[in-house]
Each structure stands twice: as C-alpha cells, then as structure tokens.
Amino acid sequence: MLSKVEELKLISRCVLADDRHAFGTLVEAYQPRLRRFFMNLTLGDEYLSDDLAQETFVKAYIELRSFRGMARFGTWLFRIGYNEFYSYKRSQHPTGDIESAPEQFSTPIDSSEIAMDVKTAMAQLSEIERTAVTLFYIDDLPVKKIATITGLNQNTVRSHLHRAKEKMAKTLKTDI
C-alpha cells in the first residue's frame, strides 16, 4: 500500500509530466482492491469486474487533474468505480430499478461450499448494502470513507451495514 505522500508524488508526476509509468504504479497498487470490490458487487462476474475496473482507471487517468488531494487517492478512485458500477446498472435497467436483478450475476466465484454460502448471502443484499459490506468488511474502510465514496450520510451507511449483517446472518443460518 502506498503512503499518501507517495500517492501525491505519483499523481504530480502524472499531471505535470504526463508520466504514464507513475500512473501504472497507482494502477498496480489499487487494481487488486478495486477488482475485488467489483467482484463482490457483481457477485463474481469476472469479465464485468475487469471491464468496470478498466473503465474506472481510464476515467481516473482522464480526470486526474481534478484530484485535489483532500481525500486519499483510493477513496477518490473507489468513488469513480462506484459511479461506474451504478452507471452500468442504470444502462442495464433503464427503468431505474437497480435493486431488482442481482440474480443475473450468479456465476459461481468458487466451488467451495463456504464461497457459495457467502455468495448466496451477498445475493440477498441490495446493491448499496453489498457496496457497504464490501468496503467495510473486505476493504476494511471506515464508515466515514464509505460515506464519502457512496455519497451517503454516515448514519445511513451504518444502517445499511446493520441491515446487511442481519440479512446475511438469516441467510447463512437457514443454509446450515
């Protein structure tokens, strides 16, 4: 993981000298986490996750001059990724109902029973609950950063996490 100072140096090199190798270093640092984020949101759709990650990095590179350094680069990047995912969902569901079709992403992540149980539990969550769970439990981000990424109030994020935990616990208990 890069420190904030290292990130800012790389970003400065990208912006001032159009140093693509510096951006490549940022991509290498954040690609695994961003891809894991998308894998959880898409319930294991590797191709879609890769496409969304690529689009996120392209947009980040194009918009890098707008990065102000108020938050960490990762927070800014995940906000772009979050917006990319929801743009994709809106394009797939023109009626605006983005909560109704998590079943379309039912490709197995892994053949183990544990992965299937977690996948089943994650599939029961709404998109925003899945986002909150992924960012909080998997990416280990604090509620404040999740609120920044999602544009939600911190208490709303906490509510989504609480509801998600209850739904997942109920699903996992019934599968035992």
Describe this entry's structure for a reader.
The protein is an all-alpha fold. Helices cover 72% and strands 0% of the residues. The chain contains eight helices and no strands. The protein is globular.
**What is the number of E strands?**
0
Tell me about the biggest sheet? Answer: none
- Spatial gap, N to C terminus: 37 Å
Which parts are unreliable, with pLDDT below 50 for 5 consecutive residues or more? Answer: 96-111
Task: Estimate what percentage of residues fall within beta strands.
Answer: under 5%
Q: How many individual helices? A: 8
Q: What is the overall silhouette? A: globular
Structural class, by secondary structure, is: mainly alpha
The helix-strand sequence is HHHHHHHH
Kindly state the mean pLDDT as a whole number? 83
